[in-house]
């Protein structure tokens, strides 16, 4: 098994990080972390099946690496000296809820590496409202699906992100990669199609606002391309 998505997540880890993977499932991210030189990890999952799968998949590392497997919910049983966490492959609401439930722990971490599958703008909105800064981001395509990765740290800076920053990603919108364009052009085409169907007034307004924001961002990209 190989995953470009999780390999990109692992690129935000550093060799000496004491790292925890929340919702570890198969344990593949820990394998990438080991390849990067990380030798202390905590793998957490709230279901026995996935945690046992991770134990089996990582058994060959047992004598080279200090790995703790923990059956627990979110950050509840996070070891006190963990410095960096990843929460990947879950819905954005679940990721935000996990962080909200243990906000003080989340604030004490050196880095949070988050990869929400859905509601990505809401995760950025939550981070910004809780005083976290987005220190890095990545966008990656795996099996025709585009994923966004957000790296955050508590910096006591509240409400720093605009609506556009939350939607597009403050870092991603400055880098303006081809994948970024692909994702948002696709969404714009999808919205244009939906707007031709019968919709409630609220839904129409919501989608029209999203469309306007997308057009503004994509037009500003074109202008920059033309200037360079
Ligand atoms: C879809 S898998 C993603 C696995 C892996 N992180 C990835 O990105 O490929 C989500 C995993 O998170 C676990 N999970 C869901 N909610 C959780 C929670 N509150 N605390 C810990 N683990 C959770 C599930 O049991 C499942 O193994």
If you had to describe this structure to a student in words, what would you say it looks like?
This protein is α/β, with parallel strands linked by helices. It folds into 2 domains: 4-161, Rossmann fold (3-Layer(aba) Sandwich); 178-227. The chain is 46% helix and 22% strand. The chain has 10 helices and 7 strands. The protein has a 7-stranded mixed β-sheet, sandwiched between helices. Strand 6 and strand 7 (145-154) form a beta hairpin. The radius of gyration is 19 Å and the shape is elongated. It starts with a helix and ends with a helix. The model has no long low-confidence stretch (mean pLDDT 95). Residues 6, 22-23, 25, 44-47, 50, 73-74, 88-90, 94, 98 line the site of S-adenosylmethionine (SAM). S-adenosylmethionine binds at residues 6, 22-23, 25, 44-47, 50, 73-74, 88-90, 94, 98.
Summarize the structure.
The protein has 228 residues and is of the alpha/beta class.
Task: Summarize the SSE layout with pairings.
Layout: H1 4-10, E1 19-22, H2 28-35, E2 40-45, H3 48-58, E3 66-71, E4 84-90, H4 92-101, H5 103-108, E5 111-116, H6 120-129, E6 132-142, E7 145-154, H7 163-168, H8 172-175, H9 178-194, H10 201-227
Parallel strand pairs: 1-2, 1-4, 2-3, 4-5
Antiparallel strand pairs: 5-7, 6-7
Helix pairs in contact: 1-2, 4-6, 9-10
This protein binds S-adenosylmethionine.
């Amino acid at each position: 098994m190989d995953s470009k998505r999780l390999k990109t997540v692992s690129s935000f880890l550093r060799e000496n990080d004491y790292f925890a993977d929340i919702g570890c499932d198969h344990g593949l991210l820990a394998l990438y972390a080991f390849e990067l030189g990380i030798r202390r990890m905590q793998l957490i999952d709230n279901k026995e099946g996935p945690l046992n799968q991770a134990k089996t998949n990582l058994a060959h590392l047992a004598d080279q690496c200090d790995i703790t497997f923990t059956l627990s919910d979110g950050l509840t049983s996070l070891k006190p000296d963990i410095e960096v966490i990843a929460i990947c492959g879950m819905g954005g609401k679940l990721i935000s809820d996990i962080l909200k439930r243990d906000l003080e722990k989340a604030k004490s971490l050196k880095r949070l590496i988050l990869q929400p599958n859905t509601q990505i703008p809401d995760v950025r909105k939550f981070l910004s409202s809780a005083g976290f800064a987005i220190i890095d981001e990545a966008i990656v395509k795996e099996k025709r699906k585009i994923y966004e990765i957000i790296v955050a740290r508590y910096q006591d800076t509240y409400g720093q992100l605009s609506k556009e920053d939350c939607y597009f990603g403050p870092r991603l919108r400055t880098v303006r990669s081809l994948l970024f364009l692909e994702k948002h052009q696709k969404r714009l085409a999808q919205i244009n199609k939906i707007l031709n169907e019968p919709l409630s007034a609220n839904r129409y307004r919501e989608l029209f606002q999203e469309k306007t924001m997308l057009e503004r961002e994509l037009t500003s990209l074109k202008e920059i391309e033309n200037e360079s």
